[in-house]
Amino acid sequence: LDPSQPEVYGTIAAAEFGRREWRRALEAAERGLAFDAEHVTCNNLRAMALVRLGRKSEAGATMDATLARDPHDSVSHANMGWTKLEQGERKEAMAHFREALRIDPGNGWARSGLVEAIKAGNPVYAIMLKYFLWMGKLSSRTMWMIVLGGYVAYRFLRQLAADPRWTPWVIPLIIAYVGFVLLSWLAAPLFDLALFLHPMGKHALDDDARTRAALVGGALGLALVAGGLSFVVSDSYQLVILALVSGVLSIPLSAIHVCAEGWPRRAMAGIAGALAAVGFSAWIGLGLFQPTEESAAETLSLAALILFFLGIFVSQFAANWLATRQLTR
Description:
It is a single chain. By secondary structure, this protein is mainly alpha-helical. Helix 5 (about 75-85) runs parallel beside helix 7, helix 6 (about 90-105) packs antiparallel against helix 7 and helix 12 runs parallel beside helix 14 (about 295-325). It has 14 helices and no strands. It folds into 2 domains: about 5-120, Tetratricopeptide repeat domain (Serine Threonine Protein Phosphatase 5, Tetratricopeptide repeat); about 140-325, no CATH class.
């Protein structure tokens, strides 16, 4: 490899970016630009790294200059779109994503950006998108610290809630935290599902998003049907269990296509499949067979149900870890 070729540094910058090493990616891109200040790949990677480092104005200036030199580069338009989205300029972002797709309809980076911009038209998702983009800038270690820190804070609040003096103040915080966590897990697939069900919106989704929407939609649909029937059917605890298992199962299902294609995705799919087997086994044991009280069958089914819910909780730590794994090609 010729160290004076900017392509070399572009490749290094891309690798560092994939490892979430934003500063190293920026350094590599800038070393490439020292040999060719107009190198498109290095300029794009420089802008992407700057966005992750929170230096949005510099990223915007870089992309402005890049597009001024080559206004017909699809990747540059996509990166400008993401820069605008980071800056909260949704309409401008959509314009750049559309232009990127006009130039290159196969640009997945632009397509995913356009989908996020469309979903950000909803104020609830707009808030979640800001959170997702903020988390996306963090290193894997920092992300884990935040996840674990949130759980520790939740446990502390639960203990504090046991004191009647603190209960009225702490319970709303616990509810808000749990609601936010659930939204962070399900907001993206739920809004993907809304697009998936829209006659035009479904064409904006890529294959992964459509599959994720179908999986989550199927699980939640079954939960809604079972939950609805439980209100009109007598002795309906079987339906309640089915609704709970199906609804909660949507959480690990939503994480499958967040993971990179390859072993991370297969691992997450295996986890979700195992949880589905345990959860539906518990439903079959408790709901369909209706074992006698304190029998071995009832004990095993209850144990399976408890294992299912514990597994759902643990699966999210696994999902967070798997989502940060990048395959070496």
